[in-house]
Amino acid sequence: MVCLGNICRSPMAQGILEDKIKKYKLKNWEVDSAGTSGWHDGEAPDNRAIKAAKGHGIDISQQVSRKLSKKDFDYYDLILAMDSSNYTEIKRLCPSNESCDKVHLMLNYLHPNSNMAVPDPYYDGKFDEVFKLLDNGIESFIKQTLQKSQSN
Description:
Layout: E1 2-3, H1 9-23, E2 34-35, H2 47-54, H3 70-75, E3 79-81, H4 84-93, H5 97-100, E4 103-105, H6 121-124, H7 127-151
Parallel strand pairs: 1-2, 3-4
């Protein structure tokens, strides 16, 4: 899960997916989050993101912001961007065509081919709305991923 600063959207997305991994007992699933900027390296998520997640029974307070690294392209099977500017930046960092194929926009799982952005709540404070949007997008992502794996 990747956004710009790794203190709002991607930490909430990580927390939501971690919660759903437990809920659905998804073996061998692992999630992390990062930012394309590195501006907040070493910081906890924004307090408003922590509060929004906590309101849905998810604790993201122990997460630590970090910048996306080239190693992430080797380690992870999928890299989900929160918006088109981060998508473009992630693609620019791709070490190979194969690793670029791993990069997708998060909300395309909810609204296929729409290239919709997960709005950044940092400035407008709409953390609950963004949480719900991410929750729906991640639920759709899981369902599509499980359907695809069952048909293979």
